[in-house]
């Protein structure tokens, strides 16, 4: 019997993990402007990002299905660590080189991707925080030095936190709940307030501008807001039930 047969077709308790992981992955779009800025031919950005997203999704979906089928219910929360002792069915004292190589490549995947994303995310975060720094500080230390200091501080912050909490599921749960405010609640609230203020000042016609697209719709904004609220409630209760209560 394949290990996958041991697993139930659906597990409600796993919603927190999949929702928070998806929300965390969604935050990667914040690094897109930084990558575009580094590209020489920016007209190819659309194709590059489309290919990158398809490649990343394909890799992780394939990895998930293969790991689920091969390891069944004995899956490590950090999915790539399941491949640490991958033997392809051979005895532990006779594992072929190609099997060890596959296991090593799979385990290195998150190391490579996180290392790349860490610096990409750090640049827009530093630029955002720099705009909140008092101007006299920037003049005293210089723009370049101030940004350099900020990068060091914000680089050490997640490393310092990781020294106290090593449970990846708990980390993703906390970060995932925070991402609801960053990616859903705050943008929707800003849209509602901006639309209301424009209509109040300029009249009903101000509800639409030349920049409106198919997604610039009050109905869709409410759908996103309410759906995000429902998902946040699921994550919130499962997180506290598992890690707090």
The share of residues in helices is: 55-70%
Molecular shape: globular
Count of DSSP strands = 0
Uncertain segments are none
> What value does the average pLDDT take?
79
Proportion of residues in extended strands: under 5%
Order of helices and strands: HHHHHHHH
Radius of gyration: 22 Å
Give me the secondary-structure category: mainly alpha
Describe this protein's structure:
- The chain is mostly helical and 245 residues long.
- The protein contains eight helices and no strands.
- Helix 1 (15-26) packs across helix 8 (218-243) and helix 2 packs across helix 4 (97-132).
- The longest helix has 36 residues, at 97-132.
Break the fold down into its secondary structure elements and pairings.
Layout: H1 15-26, H2 32-38, H3 45-71, H4 97-132, H5 135-141, H6 143-162, H7 168-202, H8 218-243
Helix pairs in contact: 1-7, 1-8, 2-4, 4-6, 5-6, 7-8
Defining key terms:
globular; mainly alpha; 0% strand; single chain; 69% helix; 245 residues
């Amino acid at each position: 019997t394949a290990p996958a047969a041991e697993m139930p077709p659906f597990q409600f308790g796993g919603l927190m993990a999949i929702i928070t992981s998806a929300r965390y992955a969604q935050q990667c779009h914040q690094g897109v402007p930084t990558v575009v800025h580094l590209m020489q031919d920016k007209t190819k950005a659309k194709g590059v990002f489309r290919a990158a997203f398809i490649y990343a999704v394909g890799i992780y979906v394939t990895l998930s299905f293969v790991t689920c089928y091969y390891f069944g219910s004995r899956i490590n929360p950090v999915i790539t660590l399941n491949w640490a002792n991958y033997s392809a069915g051979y005895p532990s004292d006779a594992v072929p080189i190609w099997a060890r190589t596959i296991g090593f490549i799979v385990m290195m995947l998150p190391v490579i991707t996180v290392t790349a994303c860490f610096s990409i995310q750090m640049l827009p975060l530093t630029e955002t925080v720099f705009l909140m720094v008092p101007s006299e500080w920037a003049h005293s230390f210089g723009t370049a030095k101030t940004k350099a200091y900020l990068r060091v501080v914000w680089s050490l912050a997640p490393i310092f936190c990781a020294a106290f909490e090593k449970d990846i599921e708990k980390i993703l749960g906390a970060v995932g709940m925070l991402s609801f405010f960053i990616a859903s609640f705050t943008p929707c609230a800003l849209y509602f307030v901006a639309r209301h203020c424009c209509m109040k000042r300029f009249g009903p016609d101000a509800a639409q501008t030349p920049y409106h697209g198919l997604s610039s719709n009050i109905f869709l904004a409410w759908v996103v807001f309410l759906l995000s609220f429902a998902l946040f409630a699921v994550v919130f209760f499962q997180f506290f039930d598992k890690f707090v209560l």
